[in-house]
Amino acid sequence: MSEPIFKMIDGAPNPVAPFSHVVEVDGWLFLTGQMPTYPGEPDRALDEGVEAQTRRTMDNLIIVLEGMGLDLSHVVQARVYLTEFDRDYAVMNETYQSYFPPDRRPARTCVGVSGLAVNALVEIDMVARRPG
After folding, report:
1. Distance between alpha carbon 39 and the CA centroid of its chain, in Å?
2. pLDDT for 16-44, tens place per residue?
3. Which of 24, 93, 103, 126 has the most crowded Cβ, counting Cβ within 10 A?
4. What dihedral angle (degrees, nearest 10) is formed by the CA atoms of 114, 50, 46, 6?
5. Per-residue pLDDT tens for 111-129?
């Protein structure tokens, strides 16, 4: 096994905790959960509603992937965290699925949580794999 590479991505959102945006080992990339914050605007208010927050979160994950020379087609697994599971699950799913073709959706887990950093409604992390 090769040594892990710990990477911060230029243009990605400012960290809300002590982490790397992505860690790569042997072609596997582990993306830290992204929040619906805006790159370069850490004090900007979050968008209202889970649809807008899911879009911003997915767009932030795309920034991280692109910073590693990849895109959503390389994602093999995702985890979604929702603070209002019953209320927001359907809307989040509609928004999330718009980012993937129906035949290329990653494996996924979605869980309800009692709270997220920056009072977000949604957080998403991912695992991606380099083509080999």
Report:
1. 13
2. 899 999 999 999 999 999 999 999 998 89
3. 126
4. 70
5. 999 999 999 999 999 999 9
